[in-house]
Amino acid sequence: MERKITLRVDGKERTLTVDTRTTLLDALRERLGVTSAKKGCDHGQCGACTVMVDGLRVNSCLTLAVAREGAEVVTADGLAEGDELHPVQRSFISHDAFQCGYCTPGQIISAVAMMREAEEGWPSVVSEDLDADEFPLSREEIAERMSGNLCRCAAYVNIVEAIEEVARS
Q: Are residues 160 and 120 in the same domain?
């Protein structure tokens, strides 16, 4: 069964017809040509497919496109303002926070979303005071909050440093 849906992807409204079993990841990559979200494990375990849906990070391989009808979807491609990269993107470059780069778009999206989560007062497993109003992003907090994004090249030290620099500014 197919259904017509509309998504706002990286600031542009996109309408497409998809099989109701199509994941958001496959709709983005195969139907819309948005390839910054990567297909890694296709089981929600690696985070390469991470996108923001209505401001929250989502493994796009685990959500159906039809369930996101009308949603605002932001990929790593949509973070930049024209030619001006997002601060997290710039920091990943300056800290050499990638090797092969396959996981990088998902890492960057996850970093942007998790910084918002911390700003909004969402604690993590390692947060000392769950009732605190603020959750400063220590190295331990960053590592925990980014634990759903795997890097097969093991660039974690530089990834954490890149995020830490943006979180401090």
A: yes
- Look at the block and give the residue holding tokens 């890694």: 40
Whole-number Å distance between alpha carbons of 32 and 22: 13
Q: What is the CATH number of the domain that holds 110?
A: 1.10.150.120
Q: Please identify which residue in the block is written with the tokens 């918002």.
A: 116
Give the pLDDT confidence score for residue 156 in this predicted structure.
92
Residue where a domain stops, chosen among 56, 78, 100: 78
pTM over 0.85: yes
The b-or-e profile of 76-97 (16+ CB within 10 A means b, else e) is bebbeeeeeebbbbebbeebeb
pLDDT tens-digit profile of 100-142? Answer: 999 999 999 999 999 999 999 999 999 988 888 888 899 999 9
Instruction: Tell me the residue range of the domain where 101 lies.
Output: 87-168
- Please tell me the distance from the alpha carbon of residue 140 to that of residue 133, in angstroms, as a whole number: 18
